[in-house]
Amino acid sequence: MTRPGLALATVAVACALLVPGARAMRAALRVDVLRPVAALPPHVTGLFEEPIGFQRPPGGPYYVFDRRAHAVYTIDADRVTSRKLVEIGPEMGRIIQPRGFDVSPTGDFVIADAPRGQERIQIFGPAGLRTNGFFLPGRVTSSITVGNLVLNGVASLQLTSRGTLLMSEPETGALFTEYSRAGTPLRGIGVLRETGFEQDRPLHMALNAGLPLVDPAGGFYYVFLAGRPMFRKYDATGTLVYERHIEGTELDSWVAALPNRWPTRRVEDREIPYVAPTVRAAAVDAQSRLWIAFSVPYTYVYDASGDKVRTVQFSSTGVFLPSSLAFAGNGRLLVTPGCYEFDPDA
């Protein structure tokens, strides 16, 4: 004899399966654990001290940005041999105190570093020869960090398909700026969001810092790094398409613990806020899906219309927090630390 409670539960589940959107709701509640399908071999990864950039252009070799070693390596497509392309040093063509890194589809790559505390952008060809570069005005003031890893400012650097550069610069009055390769500001995109700390300018700027990302279908995403998690989508002209607040049970306790007062630290002659990031990394795949990795071990995936379609965890010997995400030309998702390759549709 069937118990009434069990019968009711069975009917409820059966009805839920017939309700439009129930399948999407179940998918939203599920967490997919992705495991590597490939990785750089130990004799290669053993060369690195702190790899925080791992990218591969279509048909090209791998590139690894080693922040602690102040170096960029290239690894052949078969993952057998490696070569150091850029070495440590303050001179042009070398890097010191590097922060940002990105690779274009043609194999050109860009590095942001800070010789003598001055922010510098350098662009290199696929063979590691410097082709362009410029200094940014002002001094380094980093307020969003994970340990010694800086996330805001020049660390948000990204190359566009047109060869221009994107950087988060809320202190200019726009969320991010597009630069030419010669260092000319071409346009600012996005108005600052309200934070409730507008009277505290350094904190207001820190809570507007983010990651500008190119959508391969056209336009840009902007993911805010700290404070209440959210992102925006802009079209190719810089016009806002939509804004989404990021929500999920995995983030509830983090958001509930956001402070009303933020600690500060002294840098030279002034105090700057010390703001813990909500977001550690983000990337956009070929289908315009936005992947956002948080400071808790979860990554949310949003489709082109801004709807959350998936929750993911990355695991090798155990679940870990990504320090960078990048999609290779073959569609694989490249993740550091570890220099792993994942099949994003597994």
CATH domain class of the domain at 41-282: Mainly Beta
How many H/I helical runs? Answer: 5
Radius of gyration: 21 Å
Structural class: mainly beta
Main sheet?
6 strands, mixed
| Contiguous runs where pLDDT drops below 50 for at least 5 residues | 1-27
The beta-strand count equals 30
CATH architecture of the domain at 41-282: Beta Barrel
Question: Mind explaining what this structure looks like?
Answer:
The model is unreliable at 1-27 (pLDDT under 50). The protein starts with a helix and ends with a strand. It is mainly β and 346 residues long. Helices cover 11% and strands 39% of the residues. The radius of gyration is 21 Å and the shape is globular. A hairpin with a 3-residue loop joins strand 29 (333-336) and strand 30 (340-342).
Brief characterization of the structure:
The protein is mostly beta strands and 346 residues long.
Question: Which key terms come to mind for this protein?
Answer:
5 helices, 30 strands, 346 residues, Lipocalin, mainly beta, globular, 39% strand, disordered N terminus, four-stranded antiparallel β-sheet
Helix-strand layout with pairing:
Elements: H1 4-18, H2 22-29, E1 31-34, E2 38-39, H3 42-45, E3 51-55, E4 62-66, E5 71-75, E6 82-86, E7 100-103, E8 109-113, E9 118-124, E10 130-139, E11 145-146, E12 149-150, E13 158-159, E14 165-168, E15 176-179, E16 185-189, H4 201-206, E17 210-214, E18 220-224, E19 230-234, E20 240-245, H5 252-256, E21 264-267, E22 270-273, E23 279-284, E24 290-294, E25 299-302, E26 308-315, E27 319-320, E28 324-327, E29 333-336, E30 340-342
Parallel strand pairs: 1-26
Antiparallel strand pairs: 2-30, 3-4, 4-5, 5-6, 7-8, 8-9, 9-10, 11-12, 13-14, 14-15, 15-16, 17-18, 18-19, 19-20, 21-22, 23-24, 24-25, 25-26, 26-27, 28-29, 29-30
